[in-house]
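### Sample
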Amino acid sequence: MKTYKFKVNENGYTVHIKSHEDNIINLEVNGTSYAVKMSEEFKKIKTPTLVRSASKRPTEPIKVNPKSQTTKIVAPIPGVILSIDVKVGDELKVGDRMLVLEAMKMENNIVCETAGTITSIKINVGQQVLQDELMIELE
């Protein structure tokens, strides 16, 4: 299986592990065979494999009630609010910048995807937001 070289008290030893079953190891030290019994069972630790499912994040702002004209702007990723460029009552058109969100040392401009009027702002400058956290409501 594997070969190791040890030096103990200036003496060199070549250890060749032949087999390993449960807690008994058959090995050879400088040509002499030994069967070594381990006091505890040796368990192999397996590295877990992480599996992530596909993102279920919608491509457009979430509308909680389809009959309602209110559009909820949510954080696309976790980050910190650097600036808010709108205030309640502002009329926005598509493409207007609403705020700047810093995530992973990058500034991300959050722009308006639907024309409307700002009805409420749920965040403050310097606040940390989580993914899908409500930031702004438009009507």
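The chain has no helices and twelve strands. This sample (Acetyl-CoA carboxylase biotin carboxyl carrier protein subunit) is used throughout the tutorial notebook.
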